[in-house]
Design a protein that fits this description.
The chain has 255 residues and is mostly helical. The longest helix is centred in the last third of the chain and has 35 residues. The chain has a single domain, classed as MetI-like fold (Orthogonal Bundle), CATH 1.10.3720. 81% of the residues lie in helices and 0% in strands.
């Protein structure tokens, strides 16, 4: 059995992976430059130079703040809907038999396919973006919550009943603490999905945000800024995933 890697070894391997990706990125741009001179604007050096300049201004920070706010609202709505439904589905076989086929069908519908309907019914602005993000994020939260409830030790529930706990007290003091790790796993998966859906969702008629910035950079032919925005989206998504993993590990450790 192989020995676990030390933290410096993991960091070195991660840097090597990023270095290889940058080299392949530059190689791809170089191979296209002769036939497509504009490809030079997509080079790593140009992208990071543009990113450094953008971070010194105010507009990109406004776009970052608006995008993160939309993610927070969409994720909060998904948790508010997914956790109660997950508890309900996980607690009752009849409810699961009635609703799970419908949930599985809806889960397989791409959130972006709802874009025209979202705009028609909710208008332009933040409302359709919130809907799309919440729709994308609710399913992993719901399914992981239901799985956690189904795996709860039945003796815990019997103990709660023997102590005359009400259904509300049982859910709040037994079920939810017992499935918090499952909920956090669902939230982490939801963050990954919601971050992918965010950019196309912000092309729905909003006037700010990272998705809008990419469209605006394309229209201005500022391809170095476009690549800088792509890099920035990756970095922010990585940071959000790290925070979700940290919260999950922290919960498991404190337990």
């Amino acid at each position: 059995m192989a020995k676990p890697l030390t933290r410096p070894a993991r960091a070195a391997l991660a840097l090597a992976g990023f270095g290889a990706a940058l080299a392949l990125w530059q190689l791809g741009v170089t191979s296209l430059e002769q036939e497509t001179p504009i490809a030079a604007s997509f080079a790593p050096l140009e992208a990071f130079r543009a990113l450094f300049q953008l971070l010194q201004g105010d507009y990109i920070w406004r776009d970052i703040g608006l995008s993160l706010r939309r993610v927070a609202y969409g994720l909060a709505a998904a948790v508010a809907i997914g956790v109660p439904l997950g508890v309900l589905v996980g607690s009752s076989r009849r409810v699961a038999a009635a609703l799970m086929p419908l949930f599985q069908l809806l889960r397989m519908v791409s959130p972006l396919s709802w874009m025209p309907l979202a705009v028609m019914t909710l208008g332009v602005g933040d409302a359709p973006v919130y809907f799309l993000l919440a729709f994308a994020a609710v399913w992993p939260i719901l399914l992981n919550t239901a799985t956690g409830v189904a795996r709860l030790d039945p003796n815990w529930l019997l103990l709660a009943r023997s102590l005359s706990a009400t259904p509300t007290e049982t859910v709040l003091r037994v079920v939810l603490p017992g499935i918090t790790a499952d909920i956090l796993t669902g939230v982490r998966l939801a963050i990954g999905i919601i971050w992918i859906v965010l950019v196309p969702a912000e092309m729905l008629g909003v006037s700010a945000g990272l998705g809008y910035f990419i469209l605006d950079a394309r229209d201005r032919l500022a391809y170095n800024e476009l690549m800088a925005a792509i890099v920035l989206i990756g970095l922010l998504g990585f940071a959000l995933d790290w925070l979700a993993r940290w919260a999950h590990a922290r919960w498991l450790h404190t337990r």
